[in-house]
């Protein structure tokens, strides 16, 4: 059955050039939103501090800056090659304090004094570490001490957070990490779940003042994994937001597939840039990003998961945070188990995660603070 034709429209052009996709392609300006480019920062902590000074409420700012200082120190300790066995624990405390600073800046909690982790790491009776491990996450009490994980979830997603105690199995969380994903696939002898999005384009109809997205994939990226377009839509949770449409475009002789956003958003007459952010926010939970020092500075992916796992697919930064918490808990309370993990089925994956994920997390968080893509320059 032939695919439907895409809706009538044209590529969004600002100053005669296409707008590269970003979670923050524009910023507030006087009358209409202005475009912004990638921010290059050799030291990602600087734009974070600048954001706290600018955006954090005055009464919370001293606590946020103290958390940032702690985050910086723990992060540097965790990245020190001389403390390999303690890396996950130091990194977790770096992540945790950075998250506190983020929530103080953009959330509603006035303080994180006496805050708790909001997570517990456990192992099923008789099970092996990681394979039989699980985390329990707890919602924050309305008026008492905050639970860090739940507060991070609320602020990052701008949502209600956890509504009840929730259990996350580690085998469901592990494949949700982009870097090292193929190591997970090899260790479990299962198919890959991340598929790179070749391009994300803003389209609009100036006659109706509506704007939407189109996602483009390289067709053979799906065929090599025996993934149909419908399976991609279903398992990547795109099926309610996107539809497959006819596409004749190619990349160096390779066919492209196009998925068009079903819902459109309105924008003020003549200013499609003012309508981009709602479009982005609607699709953001469905995309994973990696930071690069060379163009393109962000690569985007969709994550395919079995339907039974959908309720336990966390936002990208939350899954990273949850896993580093679990690894930190092991190195703190059961260090012999960490040695067993390093020598076991997921040893290579854990090494890749601990060595490569911290800088990704830091630059992704710096982008959240700045509301702008932040990356490290390739030439210093």
Describe the structure.
The chain has 380 residues and is α+β, with helices and mostly antiparallel strands. Helices cover 37% and strands 19% of the residues. It has twelve helices and 19 strands. It has helices at 45-55, 61-78, 87-106, 148-157, 170-173, 181-188, 219-223, 229-235, 276-283, 316-333, 335-342, 347-370, and strands at residues 10-11, 13-14, 17-18, 26-27, 34-35, 39-40, 119-123, 133-137, 166-169, 194-197, 199-205, 210-218, 242-245, 250-251, 254-261, 265-266, 288-291, 298-303, 374-375. The chain is globular and about 60 Å long. The chain starts with 9 loop residues before the first strand and ends in a 5-residue tail after the last strand. 40% of the residues are buried. The mean pLDDT is 94.
In short:
This protein has 380 residues and is an alpha+beta fold.
Q: Assess the beta-strand content as a share of residues.
A: 15-25%
Q: How can the largest sheet be summarized?
A: 7 strands, antiparallel
Cα radius of gyration in angstroms? 21 Å
Termini separation comes to: 53 Å
> What's the multimeric state?
single chain
Number of strands: 19
- The overall pLDDT, averaged over residues, is 94
Main structural class:
alpha+beta
Number of helices: 12
Shape: globular
Q: Estimate percent helicity.
A: 25-40%
Low-confidence stretches: none
């Amino acid at each position: 059955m032939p695919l439907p034709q895409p809706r009538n429209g044209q590529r969004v052009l600002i100053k005669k050039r296409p707008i590269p996709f970003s979670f923050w392609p524009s910023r507030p300006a006087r009358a209409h939103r202005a475009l912004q480019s990638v921010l290059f920062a050799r030291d990602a902590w600087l734009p974070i501090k600048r954001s706290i000074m600018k955006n954090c409420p005055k009464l919370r700012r001293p606590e946020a800056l103290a958390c940032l200082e702690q985050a910086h120190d723990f992060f540097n300790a965790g990245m020190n090659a001389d403390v390999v066995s303690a890396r996950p624990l130091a990194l977790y405390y770096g992540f945790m304090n950075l998250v506190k600073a983020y929530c103080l800046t953009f959330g509603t909690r006035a303080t994180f004094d006496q805050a708790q982790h909001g997570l517990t790491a456990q192992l099923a009776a008789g099970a092996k570490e990681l394979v039989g491990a699980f985390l329990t996450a707890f919602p924050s009490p309305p008026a008492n001490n905050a639970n860090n994980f739940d507060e991070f979830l609320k602020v990052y997603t701008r949502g209600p957070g956890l509504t009840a105690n929730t259990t996350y199995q580690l085998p469901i969380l592990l494949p949700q990490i982009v870097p090292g994903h193929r190591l997970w696939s090899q260790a479990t002898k299962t198919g890959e779940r991340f598929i790179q999005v070749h391009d994300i384009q803003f389209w609009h109809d100036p006659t109706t003042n509506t704007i939407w997205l189109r996602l483009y994939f390289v067709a053979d990226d799906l065929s090599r994994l025996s993934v149909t377009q419908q399976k991609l839509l279903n398992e990547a949770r795109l099926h309610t937001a996107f539809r497959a449409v006819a596409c004749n475009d190619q990349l160096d002789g390779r066919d492209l597939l196009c998925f068009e956003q079903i819902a459109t958003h309105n924008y003020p007459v003549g200013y499609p840039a003012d309508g981009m952010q709602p479009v982005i926010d609607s699709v953001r939970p469905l995309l994973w990003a990696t930071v690069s020092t060379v163009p393109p500075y962000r690569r985007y992916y969709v994550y395919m998961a079995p339907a039974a796992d959908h309720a336990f697919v966390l936002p990208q930064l939350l899954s990273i945070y949850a896993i580093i918490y679990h690894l930190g808990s092991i190195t703190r309370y059961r260090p012999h188990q960490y040695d067993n993990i390093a020598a076991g089925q997921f040893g290579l994956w854990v090494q890749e995660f601990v060595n490569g994920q911290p800088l990704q997390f830091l630059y992704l968080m710096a982008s959240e603070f700045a509301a702008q893509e932040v990356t490290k320059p390739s030439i210093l």
